[in-house]
Amino acid sequence: MKIISVVGARPNFMKIAPFCHAISAYNILNPERKVSHILVHTGQHYDYRMSQSFFDLLNIPAPDINLEIGSGSHAEQVGQTMIAFEKVLEKELPDWVVVLGDVNATLACSVAAKKLHIKVCHIEAGLRSFDDRMPEEINRLVTDRLSDLLLVPDVLSEKNLLAEGVANHKIGFVGNIMVDTLEANRQKASELNVYNVVSENKRPECESVFTQDGLRSGYTFLTMHRPSNVDEKAILTGIIDWLLQRAGSPVPILWTLHPRTEKFLKQYDLWKKVCAAKNLVLMQPLSYHELLAINMHAKVAVTDSGGLQEECSILGTPFVTLRENTERPVTLREHGGCGVLAGNDPSRIEAAYADALDAGRSPVRPPKWDGKTAERCLAAILNFGQ
Ligand code: UD1
Fold this sequence. Notes:
This protein has 386 residues and is of the alpha/beta class.
């Protein structure tokens, strides 16, 4: 059997690692029925810290093919990826194309494959925010509509697919593949010292001061990159004003900056203000282990990332999501998780944050988030149709 797997952007990399390792383990045990695996990187993310660092630290084999698509509008990224990926498919003629998550690579490559009558497997299928203003929701809807095999991380996602009329036999409940990577790297991350991580990654422009003891007594960490939070001046300014007021009372806020966010902070003249804040520590994008270490010891996480909500759940970090909805409701308090949605209105963020500061850690592990999802994904592909 020949499988092409596709990655493009940062959240894909931690998901592909265990899948590559599962194929290698299978091939060792089954030398007469080896799976031929080709890894394609679309090149949507390309900075060392957004891409290669994950390959190095998570032992992901180097991509066999890099389409080098780079940045651009949605249509540019998707269109160029489809054109380049179609050529790969025509040459390689795989039995399956495996796509992950909800980035532009996921959409582009599932459409290109399906038009050539190649079977598509979507890992992390069924997630729905029911908000089609999110580019990722469009990617999820199209990919799931086209996929032959839809591998879901939780029962809520399975319900979404069944409600949309997806046939039962196309759905596999495999668990959350990101948890495989988290469990495999938890020990390594726990050996890192948070003070060193912050010192090594602090942006030189940032004037904030922090100490080993200060960080030991608590901190919050922040990640933010969604267009709905960072692209519009009034919204970004409101969040920044809240941050400047809150940082330091009672704990400092560590902020790992996404390139998109940095671009807009500079464009809207907010950059100097955030650099000058005393208790807001700006950091470059962190490595997988560094962010895990920061998360493990944080009092609260403030984020608009879906993947981080899941990591917080497993680690038990109370979190506040800067969004009105989430495609991962299983991580929220109403489903037994440790997070709340707060949107991007400063007064709502403040109320949720004040509450989260008092919440304390409480790890949650939904069914099949057990570190063995990649094996189940591969088994579902190998056994498809039997
Ligand atoms: C993409 C995904 C989003 C995911 C996020 C994680 C889509 C539609 N969005 O959003 O779901 O949560 O990745 O990071 O696929 N840039 C760099 N270096 C890089 C990559 C990007 O500087 O290596 C800058 C460029 O200015 C680029 C901007 O970041 O225009 C946005 O990158 P893009 O890949 O278009 O979207 P993300 O916001 O990263």
